[in-house]
């Protein structure tokens, strides 16, 4: 009897582990659904490791964080010789509190002056910004990504 109970329990355990699992195919769009900002669904990106990631659009909070790191950004820009992708983000198109941003810009005005000087002193970066018609006085912050991409926030 004891053997039968043990055998039945083992059979149930094995049966529950051997159940088939079904993965959802995400390569096909859902009928009637569109990805993008209009639907609030972001298209996936594939990073350098092959993992799929979703990149959220920047916000005013991201710009404020970049403004607070402007001194570091200025130092980094001064040492960059090869420029990767340059993304220009207009802060007027971002969600968030513009008042908080103005406060951060006022508090970090000296660092912002340093950043703009570093940008002007970097010929490779200036060439990229000229292509994108970015005027240095409009720059309020920058972020340098791990892959070398540079995000420039402008007014």
UniProtKB/TrEMBL annotation:
Residues 43-54 have a biased composition (Low complexity). Keywords: Signal. It comes from the Bacteria. Residues 1-23 form the signal peptide. Residues 24-54 are annotated as: Disordered. This is Secreted protein.
């Amino acid at each position: 009897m004891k053997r039968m109970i043990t055998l039945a329990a083992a059979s149930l355990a094995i049966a529950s582990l051997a159940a088939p699992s079904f993965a959802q195919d995400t390569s096909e769009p859902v009928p009637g659904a569109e990805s993008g900002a209009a639907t609030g669904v972001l298209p996936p990106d594939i990073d350098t490791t092959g993992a799929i990631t979703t990149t959220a659009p920047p916000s005013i909070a991201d710009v404020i964080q970049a403004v607070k790191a402007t001194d570091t950004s200025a130092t980094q820009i001064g040492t960059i010789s090869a420029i990767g992708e340059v993304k220009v983000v207009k802060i007027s198109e971002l969600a968030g509190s513009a008042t908080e941003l103005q406060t951060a810009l006022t508090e970090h005005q000296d660092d912002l002056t340093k950043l703009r000087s570093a940008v002007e002193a970097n010929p490779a970066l200036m060439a990229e910004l000229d292509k994108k018609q970015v005027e240095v006085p409009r720059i309020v912050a920058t972020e340098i990504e791990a892959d070398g991409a540079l995000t420039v926030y402008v007014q």
